[in-house]
Amino acid sequence: MALPFVFSSESGNQPASQLDTNLNAVGAMGITQCTASGTNTILLTPTSNQPTVSSLLNFPLFGFVAAATTTGAVNINVNSIGALPLYLPDGATQADAGAILVGSYVIVVYNAALNSAAGGFQIISQQFIGQYQESVVPIGGAVSLSNVTPADVTSFALTAGTWNVWGAVTLNPGVTTTISQIIGWISTTSATLPTLPNGGAEAYLTHTFTTGQPQQIPLGMKRIKVTGSTPVYMSVQVQFGVSTMSAYGILAAERIS
Prior knowledge:
The chain is mainly beta and about 260 residues long. The protein has helices at about 15-30, 115, and strands spanning about 30-35, 40-45, 60-65, 75-80, 85, 105-110, 120-125, 130-135, 145, 150-160, 160-175, 180-185, 200-205, 215-225, 230-240, 245-255. The strands form 3 sheets. Strands 1-2-4-5-7-6-3 form a 7-stranded mixed β-barrel. Strands 8, 9, 11, 14 and 16 form a 5-stranded antiparallel β-sheet that branches. The longest helix has 14 residues, at about 15-30. The two termini are about 35 Å apart. About 30% of the residues are buried.
């Protein structure tokens, strides 16, 4: 691969503009580092000693640290040239709430073919793999249950990406409560019993459990991929009799991409 001008193959004095052309080509091959401001319309300003950006050619890369977590449809405006939509890596889905997280380092590329050939940006890298979140419901905040009725124990929102999600639910029966069936699961649908095996995140137990004794059930792990802010729930359904029943526990998730 050669730059536009190879000086060793030329003779005599050459115009300085040829050196400028080569340096511009080198600048276009790298990532232009920018400062970022704004939440959903993100203004990118190249930092000092970066290539000058006065127009958008095809496929330049821009890197920045996000100033805020997005809360709606996202647009990118480089050097105040004009705001254009930002798309997820699939090049079809516009980035939305939670697609960019505050403090994450993001690399985007301009692609003239996006946005019905009107041009747009596409995320090609975002460094937030390993992001972790959890919701812990203590026994003091246990959710009251009705017999054979699905109920959410806890939930939180997943931002755009692929997550491993797991949890454990603990049942808190009254001292005389009998338990004959426990079903616990993780889902993106509130208080709705899923179909087994539910991606590996469902416990389904039928047994004559010891009267009045708490039971803790691990719910397994499932992989959930979302394109925008999406709630995920830890839910339970219990068949019990004689007295009262409540549930508490932990729901956790780690982003893998």
